[in-house]
Amino acid sequence: MLLSPKVLVVEDDDAIRTLLVAALRREPFEVHSAVNGAEALDLTRASEYAVILLDLMMPALNGVECLQVFHEASPESRTVIFVMTAFDDVMVRHVAPNLVHGIIRKPFDVPQLVSMVREVALTRLPQAAETTIDSAELRDAADEAQPN
User: Fold this and answer.
1) pLDDT digits over 72-128, tens only?
2) Distance of CA 27 to CAs 24, 88, 135, Å?
3) 6-145 is classed CATH 3.40.50.300
4) Which pTM was predicted?
5) DSSP label at residue 127
6) Which of 50, 83, 94, 116 is such that its CA lies 20 to 30 A from the CA of 66?
7) How do the residues of the chain divide into helix, strand and coil, expressed in percent and rounded to 5?
8) How far, in Å, CA of 13 to CA of 10, rounded?
């Protein structure tokens, strides 16, 4: 019996988190969710995820802090992390350029996001930012996240 890839949605906005979880559960994934970085870290200590969708601006531990702690705790992890933000990604590129596989700007297209997660989660691509997606903005953001 094949195991379903695990996807973690970390988002403090209830409506966005609920929408993403519902959309991702239509796919062959085991989907978990967290409302902040601290809760997400607890979940990552208990289980390995194929993909994490991580909001940047959250209470209790923001996305950048969560990335740093996750990397310190699991430096060899193959988890693909995409950050979701409505703001400029300068903070992510400066603080955590090697930890983020792509940056997804809010508002985002849910079907495209699900398609991207599907491709990455089912193939576990080590170079997730090179995943082919339809949105030029998502491709550009993923390219910017790659280290020089």
Assistant:
1) 888 888 899 999 988 766 666 665 667 788 888 889 999 999 999 999 988 763 333
2) 5, 30, 20
3) no
4) 0.79
5) T
6) 116
7) 45, 15, 40
8) 9
Joined together, the tokens standing for residue 91 give 């903070």
In this model, does residue 138 exceed pLDDT 70? Answer: no
Q: Which two tokens stand for residue 35?
A: 């409302």
C-alpha span between 77 and 134 (Å, rounded)? 27
Helix (H) or strand (E) holding 74: none
Cα torsion at 64, 68, 73, 75 (round to 10°)? Answer: 110
Query: Which position has the token pair 């208990």?
Result: 46
C-alpha to C-alpha distances, 144 to 1, 7, 44, 98, nearest whole angstrom = 38, 23, 26, 11
The pLDDT value recorded for residue 77 is: 86
CA 120/CA 5 separation, integer angstroms: 10
Q: At residue 17, what is the residue type?
A: R
Residue 112 backbone dihedrals phi, psi, to 5 degrees: -65, -40
